[in-house]
Amino acid sequence: MQFSSTTTAQEVATAFQDDIKGKNVLITGTSLGGIGFDTALAIARYANLLIITGHNADRLKAAEDALKQQLPTANIRPLVLDLSSLTAVRKAAAEVNAYPEPLHVLIHNAAAPISENFKLTTDNLETQIATDHVAPFLLTKLLIAKLLSSSSSTKNPTSAPRVIFVSSSSHVILGSINLNAFMPNPKPENYSSLEAYTQAKAANVLTAAELSRRAKGQINAYSLHPGNIHTNITQHPESKALFEKLGVITPSGDPAPSLPWKTFAQGAATTVVAAFDPSLDDKAGTYLVDCVPADDQVGEACTKDPETASKLWSLTEEIIGEQFEFSH
Q1: Degrees, nearest 5: CA angle 130-96-159
Q2: What is the pLDDT of residues 276-302, one digit of tens each?
Q3: Which of 197, 200, 183 minimizes the C-alpha distance to 137?
Q4: CB atoms within 10 A of CB 214
Q5: Has residue 135 been placed in a domain?
Q6: Backbone phi, then psi, for 50, in 5-degree steps?
Q7: Which positions, given as ranges, span the membrane (predicted)?
């Protein structure tokens, strides 16, 4: 099947249903009104187990109910996960590690609102840096043994477990990665909402590439740009001013007519490709756009430099206070 910008997540899942069957998948950020829900809906139809997460228990329950209403026989398991707290990430990871099932695919889909207001998390990290980069890094580290153990439980043992980072295309406007932006206790006067967002999303691309390099075939990681989608992020009260300034939405809050927009189902499609397309087995670390590899669209200055990726990796290990180990 030929995939494109108009391909839907369900079309991808149908094409790869044999690759999804028997798999246990965890996806963060599955609230209604975002592409995570459509990603979950497509995967849940065929997966053995789908773990959905959210920081708000009521919204998580609403997503669970909506999934089960459409797919009554799907095996859905909700998990409360607050990515703005490293303590909460450790608590949720411990819960997942206690599950009897292995984990085949980990999808980092959740993201913080892009706020013009400077905020620190309980760990004294800038909120977007914490939620979009540091917490996913820690969650991956804590679940790595469970991912590695899944390779012997799948029908296709040659296919390595996968970790997916939903990034964006914003890194192309970035001159370089600013490692100081990732440090605890940043100064409010240095804060820019756009800078924090682009740094965090560029870090997703770097982390996918570095994780794949360090795992040496044991784990395959991928990053992607889902496209322009009018989600709950672009409509969030704290984010609207920035998106209007960028020309993404109009003053009335509607999607800017000059941009190519995708539906939620189309926006979720590339994530499903990254998670299950067997043709990507030998392309670990790849960045995808519109359901196909697009490493040529990665900004050379900030996201294709192995030295920068390695430095960011080491810095993030220092921040979480833990070393990443690939043993199980």
Answers
A1: 90
A2: 999 999 999 999 999 999 998 887 656
A3: 200
A4: 15
A5: yes
A6: -125, 120
A7: none
Question: Is 246 part of a structural domain of the chain?
Answer: no
The count of domains in the chain is: 1
For the whole model, what pTM was predicted?
A: 0.94
Task: Dump pLDDT digits (tens) for 215-254.
Answer: 999 999 999 999 887 766 666 676 777 777 767 777 777 7
| Helical packing angle, 35-44 and 57-70, nearest 10° | 40
Using CA atoms, how far apart are residues 218 and 327, in angstroms rounded to an integer?
Answer: 10
Contact criterion met (CB below 8 Å) for 95 and 79: yes
Domain of residue 26, CATH code: 3.40.50.720
Q: Is 108 helix (H, G, I), strand (E, B) or coil?
A: strand
CA atoms lying within 13 Å on the CB side of residue 220:
21
Can you tell me the distance from the alpha carbon of 136 to that of 118, in angstroms, rounded to the nearest whole number?
A: 21
Residue 182 phi, psi (nearest 5): -95, -10
Q: What is the pLDDT of residues 118-136, one digit of tens each?
A: 999 999 999 999 999 999 9
Gap between the Cα atoms of 53 and 76, Å rounded: 11
Q: Take residue 200 and report the two structure tokens written for it.
A: 């965090």
Q: Report which secondary-structure segment, H or E, holds 311.
A: helix 306-320
Nearest to 177 by CA among 204, 202, 208: 202
Domain that holds residue 83: 9-227+264-320
Residues identified as active-site: 167
d(CA 321, CA 99): 25
For the residues of 228-276, what is the DSSP string, one character each?
Answer: EE--TTTT-TTTHHHHHHTTSB-TTSPBPTTS-EE-HHHHHHHHHHHHH
Q: What does the pLDDT read at residue 157?
A: 47
* Run of H or E residues at 288: strand 287-289
Q: Are the C-beta atoms of 227 and 290 separated by less than 8 Å?
A: yes
3 state SS of 183? coil
Chain centre distance of CA 81: 14
For the stretch 252-273, what's the b/e string if a residue is b when 16 or more beta carbons lie within 10 angstroms of its beta carbon?
A: eeebeeeeeebbbbbbbbbbbb
Is residue 305, in this structure, part of any structural domain at all?
Answer: yes
